[in-house]
Design a protein that fits this description.
By secondary structure, the chain is α+β, with helices and mostly antiparallel strands. Helices cover 32% and strands 29% of the residues. Strand 12 and strand 13 form a beta hairpin. It is globular. The two termini are 37 Å apart.
Amino acid sequence: MKNKMTSKRMKEELEKRLHKEDRLMTFDREKDQLRIENKHTGKGITIELPGIVARYQEQKEKAIDEVVYYVEEGLEAMTGEQRFSGKEKNIFPVIRSTSFPLETGDEVPFVYDEHTAETRIFYALDLGSTYRLIDEKLLQKEGWEKERIKEVAQFNVRSLSTDMKIDQVAGNDFYFLNKKDGYDASRILNESFLKNMATKVKGNMAVAVPHQDVLIVADIMNETGYDILAQMTMSFFASGHVPITALSFLYEDGELEPIFILGKNKKKQ
């Protein structure tokens, strides 16, 4: 893909990568949308090609990998009937960027809550090898209130392991949580965990969730620490399967506040 990426070439690449015998792909030339659906169920996902092309200009192959991942996971989750009953322990919150779609490919709104200026909280039903984001249709079918989903998810995230690896760089301590269970970034919602970490840090506490499979807690002791955290977070963000945000957050008095780190200066948003 050395030549300039166009919607036509993006369409061809996605069709090649997502092709399966039980899938039907249709292209709406007027709206510049590609729809991939299961032939047997009629359920599918619609992709806005211009947005993917724009992301490709910055992220290259990673942008395509990300779309393919979302579509594969989404179609997999649509293949069966999911129920909450008896699966309460499988409901978890997941962190996504504020640019993440607010509805399914079938225009059904997801269940979500605001979190920070950079992140939102969605809710997922864990299916084992993948999970399905909970939408309003599933919520209504099960007869659950949104508040119940939220309470169950918050309870479950507190049950996840918070063991961390530590690395010291230039006098600053960096803690890494990387269980690869799909909910590493979700641990940022475990308030007791964050408060406990706050009692350990000697300098300023910063938290980062560059992608869904890592959470970083930094004990910043000097200005160099902010630069290191910025570089580290950007590196993870660029390599993550489901990127969230390249910004870090200061954790003060139970609040998360995004920070911009420019050279040796740190600026609160």
